[in-house]
Every structure is written in C-alpha cells, then in structure tokens.
Amino acid sequence: MKRIEVKLALPVVAPLLDVVRELADGLAHNLAAPLGLSDLEPEDRGAWADELLVAQREEVRVLLGLFDDEFFSEGVVAFDEDNAEIIVRACAAIRLRLREQFLKDLGDEVLESSEVALSVLPEPTRRAFMCYLFLATIQELIIEHLDSSILDA
Amino acid sequence: MPNTQTDTKTATLSELKLEGRWRVVVLNDPVNLMSYVVLVFKKVFAFDEKTARKKMLEVHEQGRSVVWSGLREKAEAYVFTLQQWHLTATLEPDETH
Model confidence over A130-148: pLDDT tens digits? Predict the structure, then answer.
C-alpha cells in the first residue's frame, strides 16, 4: 500500500487545528458548498442535504482523527489509499468554510493566488489564512502522491 | 378535496422536468485548487487528464463549464456526486437537443 508520512512542526500546526475544531461544529450542520439544485422537491432537497451532511461530518471526523495523541508526541501524520479521498474532501470542505467565516474580506483574487502579506492581517484572519494554506498543502501532497489511489478506488 | 387543475399542472411540470436533456454545469469558486478540480473531474466523469484540465480551465476562466449532458435523473446524480466533493454544480436544460 502506498503511504506518505509528513513531519509537521507542532508549534505551527497546533493553533491551526484549533481553527479546524472551531469550524467542525458549523460543518456538522451546514454544507460547505451551496446545494446546487433549486428546483428539487423540498422532500428530496432535505434528503440530499441530510446525506451530504452525514458524509461531511465523517470527513471532518477522519481529518481531526489524524491529529491524535501519537501526532502530538511524534509530529507525524500519514496518508494512504484508505484515507486519501476522505482527507482531500475534508480539506476542501474546511477551506470553503474558512472563506465563509473568516476570509471573505480578503477577496477572491487573494484567495485564488494565496498571495497576501500575513503581517498586515488581524490575528483571527491571519490564523484562518494559515489554516487555509495548510489544508491546501495537505491536498497538494495527497493529489501529487496518491491520486492514483483515489482514482482507482 | 384535491384541486384537479393544480394537480394536473404539477404533473405536467414534473413530466417536463424529466423529459429532454439536461446539462450538468460546474461553477467557479475561489477556494478549490485547480489540481483538486482536475482530480474530481477525472474521478467523477472518468475524463482523461487533457479533458479534465480543459474543463477545469473553463470553470476557472469563464466561471462555468458544462461537464455532462443527458437525462435528468443521471444529471441529478452527477450534481449530487459533485456536491459530495464540495464543488458547486447545477443543472440547466440542454436546448441544443
């Protein structure tokens, strides 16, 4: 089984995990991306949203589960074909939520380019933006090294 | 007592909705990575790398891309799957058919 291990700097990552935990509650009850079909019957719409929320909650649970006691002693997280897809999706959901909750004022161009002077941002925005970049890095690592695992699954 | 006229109208609308072809349209968002969108297109639609990149760039540069067209039921299933990947997608009637 293909597996990648990533050593992370605990003092940098720990505060970012607090941001993810803060957002987890919101993601338990609200979809990260807006529900696309406006003409669905209300009953179907509710069923869709419920099913999507169950999946979204599970994604966030699995992501946070990576950062367990072992992580806090070793500083290492591992990605493999069993968790690659769910983690990459969790990162997408949380990044969308970060935008909604903390980063809208930065503007879409900044979010797309990820180019911003961190030192000028207020602390909550700076921490959220760091978290946004951290999750993108995880996604890039997984897509670079484990995309075939996801595509073949 | 049921309102026959309304019931008939509703039935007709539902039938119309199910008839014909529908397009699955993916809309741009400033958050999801280009590489992620390419991965999703390859996974969901079995696009090759070149097609997936072309569709992703349409989304990025034009704000939207039609990624599939066909019967309503299957189109809805694709929108649901894209939503599971946290992409914003919608349906529109395919009037070219």
Answer: 999 999 999 999 999 998 9
Tokens encoding A38: 């406006």
pTM, 2 dp: 0.91
CA separation for the pair A6, A146 (Å, rounded): 13
What is the distance in angstroms between the Cα of A73 and the nearest Cα belonging to chain B?
31
Nearest to B86 among A32, A144, A147 (CB): A32
ipTM of the complex: 0.94
Chain B residues whose beta carbon lies within 8 Å of the beta carbon of residue A38: 90
CATH class of this structure's domain B20-93:
alpha beta
Q: Is B63 left (phi over 0), alpha (psi -120 to 50) or beta?
A: left
Tell me the C-alpha distance between B21 and A134, whole Å.
41
Strands B64-70 and A76-80 come out as unpaired
CB atoms within 10 A of CB B82: 25
In the block, residue with structure tokens 């993810």: A20
How far apart CA B50 and CA B42 sit, in angstroms, is: 10
